[in-house]
């Protein structure tokens, strides 16, 4: 018992040590954190969370790190500038707080409109401005004006109504008035600058909500009758609808229409700054546009199942995109919001939908709990026929500890890293058919979901501005008590990546060049453009019929292993010890790029099966890495200053029919050339192979030792 007690105390100690930096970085909480039981700093008091584990209001507390300390019952309202009681118990998450910045989050309208304080219907103007339904009347950037008292024109109204009908699909009509006319929402004048009355606006919006008989010559009495069902005038006390309506009042009417829509007509269901939170059971969101400023727009936890179908989810923040602080900062990504967040052992399915985040993460996972009972499932996030984007920084998704991420016929674009995978995490990237064959995914698909995709072989496209996939080892002491994840077992675990019939790519033009401290920036630059980066971790990477494209403006590497220096996100290999290493299998595919194995602490096992690789393959050493750290300016990543005796490198197997087109000097520690496999050189060159300094023919057979492939120009 004494040993168990000491072990528990040790875990609690590490958990508290991990949480302290996160708490310090959140001295000023966001007003948006009211759902976590926080009072708005210096503002109105807020009500405490319910304290129920994984509940909507008392779920993972801001800053909840590994083994987050349990919160009590929801507290009473805090005093002025104070805070309410703590929320419920935090999960075992390792990413921490939702916002790492003390800068308060404000709406785009408030921060960009110089005359916002003169607006009467501020919430409504914020809504239409966030959705892009109404623009400013003048100016740009943070010097715009809304002109609230200015008369509304037909052109502005038609644009607002047109875009409201496209809040999920995101299409932009070329002619708003023509679009509304074609949809039967408008009849008559097409003059852009014609002023419109309250009744004109109401009829158009009511028609978009599904009301009949209001277009054209319909009288105002018909509109009055429809307004009894759809109260578009809420908040517009005393307004005379027969007179020209102001932009301010029109914004209120439009916002009311969004709030009233049930999605059955032209306007989808809309949730503005009203996040979806699910702690148990099953919930389906369909034909809905969700927007949240300053935090997670969608969050599910516990053992809940969330299905988001034919919808769009946006996360935005006024906080400038900067590198994450605290422990998450070691991921070397930027941002302050995670648009969606899946926790515990919950399941999230995004079907034919779009998720957009300004930064940090689009489809994030955290606080996963290990499955210990039969019938339970690990945390999983699925994307089928969907699109996910992080615009300014961060990552697209993260297969964190005990987390699984699936992309089927989906697109993922991220300014920095598209997918991060950690130890005990798994990533599956495939085509539409793979999704329909996946048991759990198929169970959530309905006929219309599948009918939207006639090409079942349409694969996923995963693109990162820095890297498409980054794999690292998540080495957190509080998890060592889990069976299979002990301190002794951890070094033999690995992240799993499976890509079938899909594309992985880097595109440096997506990177918004967030500035990091000099040393970290130099380290980032060293592997920028590499498609798959593995940082001091074991990995099992299976590429089948995959397309892998490296941006040549970067490293040009398809696979790039490097040394990490962060003990929480690496597994250091003691000299003389052999760990599983990095396994890469390429089958039935053609690739053009280099394989750079700079992690001198473990082997890479590279196998080509009926595949073609054009590029060089290098095996780094401790000497080459240490020299690189000094030359490039990231000396803290020099973790073996006194050297490393054990020799590791690339073990290459060219299976039958495989072709390696060597483009530069390469070095391996073992090579197997199968029957019919070849090593070739560019036109005008020939291949020379030496093993331990002795020249050998590059023919079928097995070779071990210091293997060097050089290109000799033909005479």
Short description:
The chain is 18% helix and 27% strand. It has 715 residues and is α/β, with parallel strands linked by helices.
The whole-angstrom Rg is 28 Å
Instruction: Indicate the overall shape.
Output: elongated
Sheet having the most strands = 15 strands, mixed
Distance between the termini: 78 Å
Key terms:
alpha/beta, single chain, 715 residues, 18% helix
Describe it for me?
The protein is an alpha/beta fold and 715 residues long. 18% of the residues lie in helices and 27% in strands. The strands form 4 sheets. It has a 15-stranded mixed sheet. β37 and β38 (694-696) form a beta hairpin.
Topology:
Layout: H1 2-24, H2 108-112, H3 122-130, H4 154-165, H5 176-182, H6 198-208, H7 220-229, H8 247-260, E1 269-272, E2 276-278, E3 282-286, E4 288-293, E5 298-300, E6 305-309, E7 312-316, E8 338-344, E9 347-351, E10 354-357, E11 361-368, E12 379-384, E13 387-390, E14 395-399, E15 403-408, E16 411-414, E17 417-421, E18 426-430, H9 432-437, H10 439-444, H11 447-451, E19 461-464, E20 467-472, E21 495-500, E22 503-506, H12 518-527, E23 532-535, E24 539-544, E25 547-549, E26 557-562, E27 582-587, E28 590-592, E29 594-597, E30 604-609, E31 612-614, E32 617-619, H13 622-632, E33 650-654, E34 659-661, E35 666-673, E36 678-680, E37 685-691, E38 694-696, E39 701-713
Parallel strand pairs: 1-4, 2-5, 3-6, 4-7, 5-8, 6-9, 7-10, 8-11, 9-12, 10-13, 11-14, 12-15, 13-16, 14-17, 15-18, 16-19, 17-20, 18-21, 19-22, 20-23, 21-24, 22-25, 23-26, 24-27, 26-29, 27-30, 28-31, 29-32, 30-33, 31-34, 33-35, 34-36
Antiparallel strand pairs: 35-39, 37-38, 37-39
